[in-house]
Amino acid sequence: MQKQTLSFQAEVAQLLKLVTHSLYSNPEIFLRELISNASDACDKLRFEALNEAALYEADTELKVRVSFDKHAKTLTITDNGIGLSQQEAIDNLGTIAKSGTRDFMAKLSGDQKNDAQLIGQFGVGFYSGFIVADKITVESRRAGLPASQGVRWSSDGTGEFEVSEIERAERGTSITLHLKDDALDYLNAWKLKGVINKYSDHISLPILMEKEEWQEGENDQPGEMAKTGEWETVNQAAALWTRAKKDITQEQYDEFYKQISYDQNPPLATTHNRVEGSTEYTQLLFIPAKAPMDMFNRDKAAGVKLYVKRVFIMDEAQALMPSYLRFVKGVVDSSDLPLNVSRELLQESRAVKAIREGCTKRVLSMIEDLAANDAEKFATFQAEFGAVLKEGLGEDSANRDRLAKLLRFASSTTDTATVSFADYKARMKEGQDAIYYITADTLAAAKSSPQLEIFRKKGIEVLLMADRVDEWALNYLHEFDGTPLQSVAKGAVDLGKLQDDDEKKAAEEAQTHFKPMLDKLKEVLKDKASDVRATARLVDSPACLVVQDGDMSTQLARMLKQAGQVVPEVKPILEVNAQHALVKKLEAGDNFDDLAHILFDQALLAEGGLPEDPAAYVRRVNALLEKSV
Prior knowledge:
Distance between the termini: 92 Å
Radius of gyration: 33 Å
CATH topology of the largest domain: Heat Shock Protein 90
Number of strands: 23
Low-confidence stretches: 97-102, 112-123
Largest sheet: 9 strands, mixed
């Protein structure tokens, strides 16, 4: 047979070095990965055979076999799945075109336990075999090809691999690991069964191992376990979600979650239900304990795994879960969808719409249960996923009220994001008729905003919102339980019954008394401010910026510009504190234009923005400093 000797793709060579020298703290993951790959190969055959039944080749019993040879020091994992052609062996085992290897290597942390979890996440599970083997041989034949077109692939993991054509009667793949001397404990049935039960018990295919029985030694030789030639199933051989809840332990749920999510931590919450009615399906859903690093990359595919009548269809069925719940992991197995369902059909199917609504309600119930019964876990959920949950206010009008009850914020009375709208309402002052809030780039900026001064003076609580999504999300929530929401940075401040008659009268008199100065300021700042007015909202600061009710805030405009979007010009309103010494000095007439611009730019800085011309701002401040010194 003609052999080809080929070099690994450069990234693979680098990866192999990392796998063989670094990821050894949890070596048994190699078996998890190879069995998972074998199961995937069987799923692919089952899927392709929907349209081409001949691919089964009269062998419809899909399975995985695990065997070992103590004398040869080899461990072999065999499946009768889709198999590989010679070119596929070269492409799939010699290169990693789509697995994100660069990302994988960039995320290696030096924490070997964490690093080991990344192997499956980036699709490089096959190479984990080199953790325990100094040579790997793969023999395979793709379903549908003749026996003469089998392929043998082998490598010692150093930089090259050999490929040759072989005769192979069986469809599928056999991966033989030539074990290192420090990995010979995997030549033990008890050890292998323990690893399989720990990591692969949920695999829906039977995982078979040869039975062993004790054989007495002869002539005073010690006895040993000998193979009987019979094969037995060593896993449950039933998909976890198809089993009754009473037969599944939380540890089994946790292990299944770790397998499908590549997360080393157990989930924060789990739900497993069979839904019957006009649409029948089973859902096994998990809320992770930690957000992924790319949580806010909305372009990244995300979603639960979709099965139809226990046949795997697709990994990230985005149509089954709204985008704001993209952190949810799990499986949905439907009895109503066609086996040849496509992503396009998913968008149009009534059954999918029903499943999506059911899964959404179930996840919200899980979060509500955490909020009601486990404060510690709910605090973890808020810290990891609270921001992305807010996206639902704009995306899911049907569940907007439920979502609003689950949101938590910091406030002017507490730095921790623990205040709900219901908590706020319960603490509202007598006569207060709105829930007040402020959005800012950071919590510190929100907390020190000049707009809060009158509210602090009167002891009125204000919710502090510093997540990037807050400004957008609050556009879709105008009230909570009948009480309107009011941004303290939008519109004229109106505290209603919370202001006494003297305060209202003083505010009106200031507007009239300072009208000439306000008009002059408006003329000087006409390119920056849409209006200038006296305000009662400031106590210690000379000025602040606000916008009209319904207008885009300056903060949101900055965020959209940073994202590269075209934003209409936003001209804020400058409000001045007529009682402040700097404003009184301004009224006196010295350096009016420079002081006016400084007043505006300082108000912009106070809310987290930057002057349009920083150099001009610095020159004006320096000039004033020189005069004062």
